[in-house]
Amino acid sequence: MSIFGQKTPDKEGAVKKLPSMTQWLQFFKVLNKKEIIAFAGLAIVFFASLIFLIHSFYVNHTNIVPADSGKLREGILGQPQFINPLYAYSSDVDRDLIELVFSGLMKYDSNANIVPDLIKDYRVADNGKSIEFSLKENAKWHDGEPLTIEDVIFTVNLVQDSDYLSPLRANWQGVELEKTSEYKGIFRLKQPYSGFLENLANLKIMPKHIWQGATVQAMTSNTELNLLAPIGSGPYKVSKTSQRSDKTVKSITLIANKNYYDSAPHIQKLELIFFNKEEDLINSLKKGAIDSASIENSGSIDIAQFKNSEARILKTTNYFSVFLNNNKDPFKNKNIRTALTMGTDKTELLQTALGGKGTVIDSPIIPAFYGFGEPQNTISYNIDEANKLLEQNGFELKDGLRQKVIEKTSAFKFKATLQSGSSGNDVKKLQECLAQDPNIYPSGEITGTFGADTKQAVILFQEKYKDEILTPSGLTKGNGRVGAGTIEVLNKVCFAVPDEAVYLSFKIKTGNHPALIAAANDLKAQWEKLGVRAEVVVLDNMEMKRVIRERDFDALLFGEKLGAIPDPLPYWHSSQVIDPGLNLSLYQNTDLDSLLEKQRSYYDFTNPDRTKTLEAIQNTLVADAPAIYLYAADEVYLTSKKLKGFDLEKIIDSSKRFTNITNWYLGEKRTWK
């Protein structure tokens, strides 16, 4: 038998040739139509099966993994100034860049928990006053130099130096750092502090070999190191900075740090494109000119219009409240604060301000974010009860406005008996009073001496008001002596002060941001239903800083935020009522102060007793209502639908949307198992 011209033995042993190619081509000529169809069908089945088997083998013996490729274009509202950990925390834009270019000793994970970053391991000793730690020895700066304990000491010293005016300085007072080896050290605290690990997460380390010896002026004026080519140790490094004709920064291109000590990023390039107007950023996202952006004014934007984008809704600790000045009327009165809280529909307010993208809160400790128990005795929306409470506190509704009548009295009143021979200030006041009627005291002389003219004037006064003075005593003529009956009438006639109507009216001051303005106007409309008159005053950034610094407000609609380890002390302790403290309600409560100090003293911030202390703090703040707690805002981050690996749920601030950026990817590939 012969195959393709090759000689093969037949069963008798004779050698025969295989059919040649020409002979094979004659094969279909000897088949009829049905046989050809059958053969073709079998051939198709054969090759399909072969392809299927090959594909199955490939799929079963390979894994899909992220491909190290691609570029992500991120739109950012604002301008970068300092890609420098010493100063970045006063700017949202700078914090974004710091998060990508630099590293901290600790960091946040996808659920806003604090976990090691540059630190390899650590141990808490001395009841929380010592933290021994070691660094990862494979960490390097972008220029290839090793990152050691010397860099950590250098950074801490810079932050603590008052000459450099770092915003982080307050968190590092009294902290000492001792070097025990090239990659090990010990932090020593004067007392245990539950939030210290968060300080480690917020402190990004600076390279000593780059900045050593830099003066304050050099630190702030070095554009090359602060903006164009900063040297960090993070997952990305600056490759290129582009400027517009007006010298503003158009974009900064970052490339993946392939020597990153942790898993290197999959996305090879990040192009950060800066916009001066949110409208321009939004339009670029719609057109596909950028791939991702954090939307600041998300309440007024229909997310569905971004057809090529996916909305990532991230829970945050950014909460907004109306801080009521507890040192001013009417907010000195707890019942008035409570009534206003009852008259506030927070659900409506959240919809108005943020399009519902957030969470209504009754406590500034945000229990839903941290998993604490809900506060006791929350003040629910109840407009009828609010009206009743205002009535009980003297504010009656007249002509649509709440007002309270205040009885006014003169600073002077006659009290002592006066008669001929008396002298002094009381006699002067008597003469001034009598002189108001020339028919009674024609001379009108103010001598301070009770003489004959004064006596005659008193007699005439007594007879003019005989029904009130003489008749009750059975007299028909005045005697010229100023006794009890005469004193009472003199005080009514000469020193009567009309009562004053005090309206329940005040100003709500807030920042120049669409969501805040919308919320303030909604509050005004809601409180008008109670008869409360509120005027909205919108402030620019500079004026807002002054108002907060001087506590120059009746009511302030403003936002605050907590960290991953909540520490409400800066916002509510009595010591923080004066700037730079952040107790904006000027609320003082010694029992609360003790609780606020106690929650800080647990070095293990997960201690159940600390949780109970925080819950007691929130119960006090809910009961006393020094402010009206409104809502916690969500972060709305729009990204290309092609982006994968994004698994964040909670963030502490907007820059932490990049927390797990090394897991993000735009493409996939298969690798053999």
Q: State the fourth-level CATH superfamily of the largest domain.
A: Periplasmic binding protein-like II
Number of helices: 22
User: Structural class of the secondary structure composition?
Assistant: alpha+beta
Q: Span from first to last CA?
A: 44 Å
Oligomer: single chain
User: At the first level of CATH, what is the class of the largest domain?
Assistant: Alpha Beta
Give the overall silhouette.
Answer: elongated
DSSP helix fraction: 25-40%
Question: What is the number of independent domains?
Answer: 4
**Strand order of the main beta sheet, please?**
11-12-13-4-14-25-15
The count of β-strands is 26
Task: Provide the β-strand percentage band.
Answer: 15-25%
Tell me the CATH architecture of the largest domain: 3-Layer(aba) Sandwich
Radius of gyration (CA) equals 40 Å
Topology record:
Elements: E1 7-9, E2 15-17, H1 21-25, H2 33-60, E3 62-66, E4 71-77, H3 92-101, E5 106-108, E6 114-116, E7 119-125, E8 130-135, H4 149-160, E9 176-181, E10 184-188, H5 196-202, H6 208-211, H7 216-221, H8 223-228, E11 236-243, E12 249-256, E13 269-275, H9 278-287, E14 292-295, E15 309-314, E16 318-324, H10 334-342, H11 346-354, E17 358-360, H12 367-370, H13 383-392, E18 396-398, E19 401-406, H14 425-434, H15 452-464, H16 466-469, H17 484-494, E20 500-503, E21 505-511, H18 514-528, E22 533-539, H19 541-550, E23 555-561, H20 569-572, H21 590-600, H22 608-624, E24 627-633, E25 635-640, E26 668-672
Parallel strand pairs: 4-13, 4-14, 21-22, 21-23
Antiparallel strand pairs: 1-2, 3-26, 5-6, 7-8, 8-10, 9-10, 11-12, 12-13, 14-25, 15-25, 16-23, 16-24, 17-24, 18-19, 19-20
